Batch of 2 targets.
Target 1
Amino acid sequence: MPIIINGNDVAREIRYEIKAKVGALQEQRGIIPGLAVILVGKDPASRIYVRRKTEDCEEVGFFSREFKLPENTEEHRLLSIIDELNRDGRIHGILVQLPLPQHINANAIIDAINPRKDVDGFHPYNMGRLFTGDPFHQACTPYGIIELMDRHGIKIEGKNVVIVGRSNIVGKPLAMMLLTRHATVTVCHTRTKNLSEVTRRAEILVAAAGSVEMIKGEMVRDGAVVIDVGINRREDGTLVGDVAFSEVVDKTSYITPVPGGVGPMTRAMLLTNTYNAATRLSSAQ
Ligand code: GUN
């Protein structure tokens, strides 16, 4: 029988652990971790994500600041807010919700964040450290995927892992994390030839392409672990993943559902990164 991985349960467990550690950190060192979340524009999904990130902070006892800026905010205004937050001693983590409006250069914004406060793990410094196998802050979604597997006792070392999708947010950093954990990693994308042949070899298959139910039953090897990173919204508003769950589930040993699989883990790892940033920044001061 396949095990359907409950990301909500694991994320809740992580929040409990962090909440307990925050209490101790405050008592022993007088530090309260602080996160700043910046949203530009009115993208409905982004608004929900940002609200939930702030609620998570409240739940675990973090200090948080939320910036909601209009769609037409100029790049220099965003840069000046980041500059202020880089110098704000109460803030240990800075997150700029992506995607940003077209007129803002997202790379320039990410570059401006102090890498020690880059709890998204998107700054080239953090990406580079991940690449060399000595990570500092790791991107939250791939970090959450590794944590989900670890907490279910899924062995990564020596496994054939296939990732479908090569984004900077998921596919590329995940490939590096898995390499560090001694997996054999293949990254597929839109130009990959004979995709099903490749995916059928996967002992662990990660779907992170952003394409509705593109992973069909015949693309999955018997007994595979299937991780679905897709969050696609159907016209009727329901969420659907990159995996055709009903035709894939019975072939798997473990599978993550959408919603309630990887999604909640992204936010949990943001809290982990912010907690770690607070302990490290404060000891550096
Ligand atoms: N948009 C989608 N995923 C993410 C994420 O992990 N971080 C940020 N900042 N924006 C996102």
Target 2
Amino acid sequence: MPARLAAPEPTWAVDIDVVVLGSGAAGLSAALAARPVRDVLLVTKDTLDAGSTNWAQGGLAAVLDPGDSLESHVHDTLAAGADLCDESAVRTLVAEAPTAIRYLSRLGAAFDESSHDHLALTREGGHSHRRIVHAGGDQSGAEVQRTLDESVRLAGVRVVERAFALDLLIGRLADGRRAVAGVRVALLDETGAVESVGDVTARAVVIATGGFGQVFASTSNPPAVTGDGVAIALRAGVAVTDIEFIQFHPTVLWTGPDATGQQALISEAVRGEGAVLVDASGARVMAGVHPQEDLAPRDVVAAAISARMAQAQGGVDDHVYLDARSIGAEFEKRFPSITASCAAEGIDPTTDLIPVAPAAHYVCGGVKADLDGATDLVGLYVVGEAACTGVHGANRLASNSLTESVVAGTRVGRALSWSLPLKVEAVDDERPAALLSADLRAELRSTMSKYVGVLRSADGLSTAADRLARLEEKTDSAVEPSRRSFEATNMLTLARAVVAAASARTESRGCHRRADAPESLDTWRRHLYVVDSDATVVESP
Ligand code: SIN
């Protein structure tokens, strides 16, 4: 794989204390918390609100009800994570979650209330209590994004939109250790063509670029979510872990067999309010599958739906249905975005069944980091979906991700306001550079959905590896640099990493399910690490 993204030579330079890559809840929280003390530049390849945060429906998990307990939230998170969570990271997240909600409220986030001064709380899969805070019914992420966008601008964070982070600039500390010197950035025009390239030197680089659902043909993620920061880390030789655990959301709106790209999410909160899954013959999908039935953890529900689709009950093999009719007239008020998505397809959830299918939704793994964002590379910090802090294990508990983004983003920003790593000079980067043509994205994405989806097997993964290797042979230094070709190259790097880790993990655990190894094995209660852009998998980083 290319060791660098091919791009024109840099023609400008900027020096700053902290550069944050990405503008979802994690990046904005980090920038905001560092800003009172540091000069902060926030770089985003699109507009501020183009990432996943803006689309999040369910909300933010936090213990706010006196009948709930931190211990219960910890228990549910660990249970969903299928023995791969880092318990101390989970405990920190859960303990700090209520403060994160109060912080957002103070910044102006208008969360839904059940009565004056009491936040409305809903339930989602895997939670034993109602503890999901939401806004605008099902527009929770949009409210968090709006709040943080405004706060970041008011705080004087410098924001540059349509700027694509290409690769880290690396130098050496006096003791010889590698350290981050900054990041090379391409400024884009409205079509995604490169206008110029420059170097942003900084004492700290914070990657907060989110996940990479767009690596799959069908996803709940918006088009910008191509995992650029995780690919940057791999090219810099920073370990990525738990990357085989791609969470498939059980229910996106099914609009036809050929639908690709971003699909409308049908929030788990719909099941939290009483909806149930049925197949085309009318039989309940989740009855008898798990004690929590339709509110079982997400991996269990997605796998049960896939198994039911494979049985083709009622002659339907590519979707099942959500029966939300019991919610009645309240549905539109509680779920305005979902009502609009359904209406666009001629579906009235108060009278019709909603056709649904699983789609790629969230990357549980990512760049190995702690809850303060620190990684194994001096000067590099990673937060949000791009990071693997051990909070999610093999399967993220619903609505823990926005909470984690705000908690960890704020922690990294605060840590950087207290102290910055030493400044290092970048050394010339002679690594070979190339790109994958954007025309090959569709082939990559269909390969991933076909062979690396909810249910995997050694044969399918091996076919995927061969197809991705053929795409790799087509990477070339002559491909025109552009946002689309940068993204395509990053997507290929990540697809290869997922396939390598999924092939190595010969068991089923959390959201990594293998038809040829259906059991979870005690010997596999451990993490795998991908340590470079050639998808080398190792047992310890
Ligand atoms: C949902 O609303 O179902 C998604 C929430 C999440 O992914 O945490």
